Amino acid sequence: MHPQVTRSEPGACPICGMPLEPIGADAAEVATVAAERRRLWICGALAVMLMGVAMAGMAGHGAGHAAEGLFARLIALAGSAWGNWLQMALATPILFWGGATILSGGLTGFRQGRPTMFSLIALGVLVAWSVSVLATVFPWIFPEAFRRPDGTVAVFFESVGMIVVLVLVGQLLETRARRGTTAAIRALLDLTPPTAERDPGGEIVALAAVHKGDRLRVRPGSRIPTDARIVSGETTCDESLLTGEPLPVARGPGDRVLGGAINGPAVLVIEAIADPHDALVARIARLVRDAHAKRAPIEQLADRISAAFVPVVLLVALLAFAGWAMFGPQPRLALGLLSAVSVLVIACPCALGLATPLSMTVAIGRGASAGILVRSADAMERLARVRTVVLDKTGTLTLGKPRITAAFAVADGRIDEADSPEAITSAAGSNAPAHPALHQLLLHAASLEAGSEHPLARAFAEAAAGLSLPAASDVRAVVGRGISGRVSGSETLLGSERFLVERGIDPAVALASVPAAAAALERAREAGATIIAVAVAGRLAGFFAVSDPPRPEAAAVIAGLRREGIAVEMLSGDTPQAARYVAKLVGIDRAEGGLSPEAKAERVMRLRDDLRGAGSVAFIGDGVNDAPALASADVGVAMGSGADVAMETADLTLLSGGLAAVPRAITLARGTMRNVRQNLLLAFIYNILAIPVAAGVLYPLLGHVTSPMLAAAAMSLSSLSVIANSLRLRSIDLSGSVPADGAAA
Question: For residues 424 and 579, which has the higher predicted lDDT (pLDDT)?
Fold first, then answer.
């Protein structure tokens, strides 16, 4: 397939001859897959009947009218001339209806001087069918040695049928894999609501009717229709799917909000600053589509072999025909024709055609059992060549769940500090604490957040698990600022430093007399943590640092990748400070933060250009904001816990094992590509040995030329060897580290 070729109407690709596929039309796309599936089922049923008649014919030759019983007579009928006619009737629609795209693609390759594997398959099945038709309609033109006692000649229509059906199976699997691109775009566009509410008036209109400058009303909990600026209302917006930032962000009049973000508790009036088709979500969708369209199809090794192999096969067949026709014994022309046909049949690249799809099918099944979902064979090939791995931060390198990572209690001019979640639990997370000041700080904060749905509430609930929390009263939340209430009779404030300043408590003044606390707070900020201030009874009580900690396995996985010579980088939409801090914790030297989805994709493209084909770039992410980078990378890898859009866009999805599944996926990919190369070598060796035999080099020893039927049988044996080798992938060991490219499978 050639994705760069587009047409306004249905038709065939001018390069490879394969039918063009619909872009963006769900109904047309589903109809295409349904038509291919229907074609496969019909041809498969005909091929089964064809194989049954052929096998019965082999058993029935010579039975004649002496056979007794209905079943025996049917067997005898299949072995007669009528059996050949029945096989022809079954094989003809399989070839010319079911295999129309195969013939079209193969002949296009010949016309353009770029023969592919389809060219060899088309040539082989056409010759096999043509000679079988001659054997059925004009059996007397064949040498006496090739006729059976009843005067019929062996045919191999069943080989034609099975070859076409196998290719149709591969085409259907390929088409279904490519549907993922459209599904990804559809999932992206589903992030925005189909309708919007105008302001004033409350008229509900289709999203397509919204234009830049329109004023809209957004209800609490609803998705924002398009990129806009807030006219009135203060709220918090969940932009995590778009930006990767795990915490809701405060937004008020004059602030920009993104289409697709989820509005918080307030009613907003917004003014559109972009038409929906120019909003961030739509731009991300276009980036995904364009990245897939621009990605040139991988030049398969089988096609490269076929490109050189086709002229050689044709030359050998012509030489065999000419040699027998000019210098062979009588009947010269018949022997020459049979030799040429045997060469073409025995060279039909069934084993070459099976080499890649069989290995990939087994490998995809093995990956699924290990929690690795692979979308396509191309993705497996690109992953095997990976030289640079780029990771998103939030939800990929980190858990994607805010946690309280440090606590600082300030009292009597000194600081009581716990610098990790474990330290907080040890110091304050019991009803008989070792550090009373930290204990009281955690009690007041967790009590206020106990009834909140804010993501921070879950972080405080986790830190205070097992504590007996006092009831909070008069709890009031101020959107984008914080929360207030009474805990154990004391007025308690929890929120940003700005929130405390607005209530008459300046943390900076309070910290001036506690330099150790100010220094600890600065360290937390440098680590990219969100700072939550707490005041009790009108005085600063302390702070909590909230951040998204790295996955436990992240450092070990990155160290393992680097040992294998794979460069590792991080790109994040979070703040540069948070990105650099997490990168330092997990052992990544190159990290960038504050990047938009477009900037991530551009950076990935630059990395691909830097490699100049010497390897591939893999991007690992989990959010909607990662979709363009996932599509732009040679290999996109999505975390199974991430957004649907990321998984639809990615080439691989890691369902289990977290980042530890990354080296397992690379191990699987490299083992699979070694297996493919082994399969191609087996198939190629078979052709090197079998083609001269089919041409008649053993005639001086055997006294006869190779029958086309024997050629078809030999072709089947080569396919069996490929099948056996492919099945070895079922037992590939995925428990170790990433193997070198040249390691044994």
Answer: 579
295 has pLDDT over 70: no
- For residue 117 the two structure tokens come to 């594997």
In this structure, of 128-142, 352-366, 523-537, the range with the lowest mean pLDDT score is: 352-366
Q: Which residue has the tokens 């000019």?
A: 326
Cα–chain-centroid distance for residue 349? Answer: 29
Q: Vertex 125, ends 122 and 130: CA angle to 5°?
A: 120
Q: Which amino acid is at 365?
A: G
Question: Shortest CA distance to 164 belongs to which of 338, 348, 301, 313?
Answer: 348
pLDDT tens readout for residues 716-732: 667 777 878 888 888 88
Topology, domain 403-547: Calcium-transporting ATPase, cytoplasmic domain N (3.40.1110)
Record the tokens describing residue 209, joined without a space: 């009717």
CA–CA dist 71, 74 (Å, integer): 5
Contact 543, 534 (CB under 8 A): yes
Bond prior to 200 in cis (omega within 30° of 0): yes
In the block, tokens 């830097």 appear at 610
Query: How far apart, in whole angstroms, are the C-alpha atoms of residue 343 and residue 124?
Result: 9
Helical residues (DSSP H) of 245-348, grouped into ranges: 280-294, 301-327, 332-346
Closest C-alpha to 90, from 56, 123, 59: 56
173: left (phi over 0), alpha (psi -120 to 50) or beta: alpha
Q: For residue range 79-117, what is the model confidence (pLDDT) as tens digits? A: 567 888 888 999 999 999 998 888 888 888 888 777 777
Element (H, E) at 490: strand 490-495
Tokens of 150: 């009843």
What CA–CA distance (Å, rounded) separates 341 from 553? 59
Question: What residue has token string 């972009």?
Answer: 274
Token pair for residue 698? 């053993």
Q: How many H helices and E strands in the chain?
A: 26, 23
Q: Which CATH number fits domain 372-399+550-655: 3.30.70.20, 3.40.50.1000, 1.10.530.10, 3.40.30.10?
A: 3.40.50.1000
Amino acid letter at 418?
A
The neighbouring-strand residues paired with 542 are 409, 534
Identify which of 294, 370, 36 has the alpha carbon closest to the alpha carbon of residue 177. Answer: 36
- The total number of residues shown for the chain amounts to 745
Distance CA 146, CA 165 (A): 28
Q: How far apart are CA 61 and CA 200, in angstroms?
A: 87
pLDDT of 346 = 72
Please, what is the Cα angle at 272 between 271 and 275, to 5 degrees?
165
Largest CA distance in the chain: 115
Residue 418 backbone phi and psi in degrees, to 5: -130, 120
Q: Using an 8 Å Cβ cutoff, are 718 and 683 in contact?
A: yes
Domain 195-278 falls under CATH 2.70.150.10? yes
Which residue in 227, 392, 416, 548 is the catalytic one?
A: 392
User: How many CB atoms sit inside 10 A of residue 646's CB?
Assistant: 32
Q: Which residue has the tokens 């979640």?
A: 421
**pLDDT over threshold 90, residue 370:** no
- Helical segments of 219-279, H only: 240-243
Give helix 26-60 / helix 70-78 axis angle, nearest 10°: 100
Among this protein's residues, is 574 annotated catalytic? no
Give the H/E segment covering residue 663.
helix 661-695
* DSSP string covering 599-648: HHHHHHHHHHHHHTTSSEEEEEE-SGGGHHHHHHSSEEEEETTS-HHHHH
Domain ranges of the chain: 1-191, 195-278, 298-371+667-745, 372-399+550-655, 403-547
Distance (Å, whole) CA 606 – CA 628: 14
Asked if residues 54 and 64 have their Cβ atoms less than 8 Å apart, the reply is no
